[in-house]
Amino acid sequence: GELLSRIQHPGIVRYEGELEQHGTAYLVLEYYRGMTLDMYIQQYADSMDTEFLKKRLFPVIDALEYIHNLGYIHRDVKPSNIMLVEDGQTKLLDFGSAVRYEERTHQILTTAGYSPIEFYSGRSIQGPVSDIYSLAATFYYCFRGQAPVDVPKRLFHDTLERLNSDQPASPI
After folding, report:
1. Cβ atoms < 10 Å from Cβ of 109
2. What average pLDDT does the segment 69-79 reach?
3. Nearest 5°: CA angle at 162, between 38 and 89?
4. What is the mean pLDDT of residues 100-125?
């Protein structure tokens, strides 16, 4: 809650407070009526176009730039953490994995298909580029309806399907 309590950005879920009950801490966040990006794509994949992406995903780029300038990375950018609010806003959710990227060691937390290779080692350097990888994977999901093949499975033979083809990408 420390990071969220300091953030005031239109593309980021708004922190309202926190409470502790039954030995567990809870964050209280603003409620938004809408659906997450993954739910939207599952229901309306046919309406996906560049205008939608510009209107709905460019605010996520602004939100990430904002937190990166504060010295943090989100570390869990994925379609289920992007809320498409009914009023047309887009909100980046779930800052539970966010860390200061100047620090050199981080707990290993990954989401298959959306995490870059550096998230699979506690000793790898993580930074803003890590969130950019996850955002690119999110764009991929918007066009393909599924996450990219997980990075460790593509290290030696890349089978990721290209966006402009129904054929797998050729090996690197």
Report:
1. 13
2. 93
3. 30
4. 73
Radius of gyration of the chain (CA): 17
Q: Which residues of 5-32 are buried (b: 16+ CB within 10 A; e: fewer)?
A: eebebebbbebeeeeeeeeeeeeebeeb
User: Residues 59, 10: contact at Cβ < 8 Å?
Assistant: yes
Q: Is 76 a catalytic residue?
A: yes
pLDDT score of 47 more than 80: no
Instruction: Determine which one of 38, 62, 76, 150 is catalytic.
Output: 76
Average pLDDT, the chain: 84
| Amino acid sitting at position 41 | I
Query: Tokens 């966010």 identify what position?
Result: 98
Q: Which two tokens stand for residue 95?
A: 């800052």
* Cα–Cα distance measured from residue 138 to residue 80, given in angstroms and rounded to the nearest whole number: 10
Q: 15-43: per-residue pLDDT in tens?
A: 888 888 999 988 788 899 999 999 999 99
* 84 in Cβ contact with 100 (< 8 Å): no
Q: Name which of 120, 108, 109, 106 is nearest 155 in CA terms.
A: 120
Quickly list H helices, 1-127: 2-6, 37-44, 50-69
Question: From residue 161, how far is each of 56, 117, 165, 166 by CA, in Å?
Answer: 24, 18, 7, 7
What pLDDT, on a 0 to 100 scale, did the predictor assign at position 122? 64
User: Nearest Cα to 15, choosing from 73, 91, 109, 76?
Assistant: 91
pTM above 0.90, yes or no: no
